[in-house]
Design brief:
alpha/beta, Arc Repressor Mutant, subunit A, D-Maltodextrin-Binding Protein, domain 2, 8-stranded mixed sheet, about 20% strand, globular
């Protein structure tokens, strides 16, 4: 029998998610490739592991027997690999970071520059990815730290809240790079008749926005959608409509001729987190970089406080 660790990880993920498509996305392989991996395991064991229909994937009796053994083996090997990686990382002083595009473009240059000056012997590496990919990179051990708005807890991932941010409306107006851009605060009721543009409906931040738009009868209506914050803010600047984004996006707004207004009644907050793989050793470098990031987050929140006055 020659079952690889990669195959065992894939089996555990399919069994946990109950879905081949989502498991393939998390593993960054095609669904067809994942199916081949599962057929290879089944061939070696001489038994079918899954019952598949067009709507569901369930474990067979053989699959149920294999799952606890495979989960334990994967968990133990990941834990040992994490410890070994931590030992090697201390020696090499490498810090691998995954972050969403807005963080990467507007915050990481400052963070990397400051950290590099204080730790010139550290090899800093950045992977720009969408939120789900950041999560997957950390979970698989391909990144040490991940940064973003992780709204849900996840088994195997440890979240640390760095700062809570409010939601704000961004519209065309203001003065590019102004020392004192136009700003203020408005209520959600003020959005009743305003043309809105948005992030995709599957975005967790947009889902939070929709719950509050529902209170004024505007949830889940057809809108022009843009995938990234920077594009959304740029389109607001161009007059295509008002965008609702976290005050975390203020650094991107300051480079554009836009007005921003913190939304009140109710004032809605969401948390910006650092994530790490649960069970991994946490070198001092991780703590130092996290403190640098948290300090930057507090300055952005203070900027939003000034805007709301």
């Amino acid at each position: 029998m020659n079952i690889s660790l990669r195959q065992l990880k894939a089996f555990v993920l399919v069994a946990t998610l109950g879905n081949f498509t989502r498991a393939a996305e998390r593993l960054h392989i095609t669904q067809a490739g994942l199916s081949v991996m599962m057929r290879e395991i089944e061939a070696q064991l001489g038994s079918r592991l899954f019952d598949r229909t067009t709507r569901s994937v369930t474990l067979t009796q053989a699959g149920h027997a294999l799952l606890p053994v495979a989960s334990a083996a994967v968990g133990q090997l990941d834990a040992v690999a994490g410890q070994i990686a931590a030992f090697g990382q201390v020696a090499r002083k490498t810090l691998r970071i995954a972050a969403t595009p807005l963080v990467s473009a507007h915050l990481m240059p400052e963070w990397f520059g400051t950290f590099a000056r204080e730790h010139p012997d550290v090899d800093l590496r950045l992977v720009e990815a969408e939120l789900e990919q950041v999560h997957a990179l950390v979970e698989q051990g391909d990144a040490d730290l991940g940064f973003g708005f992780f709204t849900k807890a996840s088994h195997g991932i440890e979240r640390t809240l760095l700062q809570s941010f409010r939601l704000m409306r961004v519209t065309a107006g203001g003065k590019r790079l102004s020392r004192k851009p136009m700003q203020g605060g408005i209520t959600w009721d003020a959005l009743r008749d305003e043309k809105l543009i948005s992030l995709p409906p599957e975005n967790p931040i947009q889902q939070l926005v929709e719950t509050h738009l529902a209170r004024i009868g505007r949830a889940d209506e057809p809108r022009v959608v843009f995938r990234r914050f920077e594009t959304l803010i740029g389109m607001a600047e161009a007059g295509l409509g008002a965008a609702i984004v976290p005050t975390f996006a203020l650094p991107a707004c300051r480079a554009r001729a836009v007005r921003w207004d913190v939304l009140t009644h109710p004032e809605v907050t969401l948390g910006f987190h650092r994530i790490v793989k649960r069970g991994r050793a946490k070198p001092e470098l991780w703590r130092q970089f996290t403190e640098l990031a948290a300090s930057s987050m507090r300055r952005i929140d203070a900027m939003a406080d000034e805007s709301a006055r």
